[in-house]
Specification:
It holds the Pfam family OCD_Mu_crystall. This protein is of the alpha/beta class and about 300 residues long. Helix content is about 35%, strand content about 25%. The chain contains 10 helices and 16 strands.
């Protein structure tokens, strides 16, 4: 196959939600996967350049993206870039995928996999905090892959919350905007925080059967969750991180003074290897802290190559 440049809609078509969740789980059991630490280059005005390579026995890829928080609220996206996919055997470039689409879909799919493995209660309703690209992706994947039908949306922008509500209703889901995430947290066994992570957006302590996916903060300086919330879950429930990269990137947990390296990773969960991990056998609320890992992009690349033919 000759190399193909896929725009955002075509990239999304190659990454259907249930298949992407399953591919991410399969990647975690593939011994041929090799993912070095990502390169993070700080730029002016709080922006970052990320270079994220990874490969398995057949597929190699590199994601090169920028994160520009100053673009929030403008016509320019905060995340821009591409994922370039190669065939390992021949070295041939196979695909160039839209980077923001891959990032949005794989991040939400990882949250869905974590919920499938860890959530005490998948009945909903689900509270979405943040009504941007990740908020939309989490609505879509939790509905398509886990069957959640009821959503509440909280956002600093009423217009953005209303737009996501209308999008969810267009998918046949029940959805409403709420002015205060903390006020409804006790009604929601499922929560996802999907904000730019410039300030705490959730302070309410979770109910005992809650599952929280916190995806907005992916540097030590970023934060979405109150330290008291994080410490509460560490004491009474379980904290799981998406990968060991979170040990030095999980701003929510680091700012709460928690020993991030002691918490299980999603790979530990999939492998059933939780003995000795902090909170590994404990019931109660679950906090899944996602910081991003090139392995998730590799899973998307593997699926896209098959889907593109």
């Amino acid at each position: 196959m000759t190399d193909t440049l896929l725009d955002a809609p075509r990239t999304a078509q190659c990454l259907p939600w249930p298949a992407l969740v399953n591919e991410i789980e399969a990647l975690l059991t593939d011994a041929s996967v090799s993912v070095p630490p990502r390169l993070v280059v700080p730029m002016d005005q709080g922006a970052y350049l990320f270079a994220m390579p990874g490969c398995d026995a057949r597929t190699a890829m590199t994601k090169l993206i920028t994160f520009t928080p100053a673009n929030a609220g403008t016509a320019r996206p905060t995340i821009q870039g591409d994922v370039t996919v190669f065939d390992v055997a021949t070295g041939q470039r196979r695909l160039i995928l839209d980077g923001p689409t891959v990032t949005a879909r794989r991040t939400a799919a990882v949250s869905a996999l974590a919920a499938r493995q860890l959530a005490p209660n998948l009945a909903g309703p689900m509270l979405i905090v943040g009504a941007g690209v990740q908020g939309m992706a989490h609505v879509e994947v939790f509905a398509a892959a886990l069957g959640v039908r009821r959503f509440l949306v909280a956002s600093r922008s009423a217009a953005s919350a209303d737009a996501l509500v209308q999008h969810a209703r267009g998918l046949g889901l029940q959805a409403d905007a709420v002015p205060d995430a903390d006020a409804v947290a006790d009604d929601c066994p499922l929560i996802a925080t999907c904000t730019p992570a410039s300030a705490v957006v959730l302070r309410a302590l979770p109910r005992p059967d809650a599952f929280i996916a916190a995806v907005g903060a992916f540097t030590p300086q970023m934060v979405e969750l109150a330290p008291e919330l994080c410490r509460h879950v560490a004491q009474y429930g379980r904290i799981v991180v998406d990968s060991r990269d979170a040990d030095h990137e999980a701003g929510d947990l680091l700012q709460a003074g928690l020993p991030v390296a002691d918490f299980a990773s999603l790979a530990d969960v999939v492998h059933g290897d939780l003995l000795g991990q902090a909170g590994g056998q404990r019931s109660g609320p679950v906090l899944f802290k996602s910081c991003g890992w090139a392995g998730w992009d590799l899973a998307a690349a593997r699926l896209a190559v098959r889907a593109a033919g």
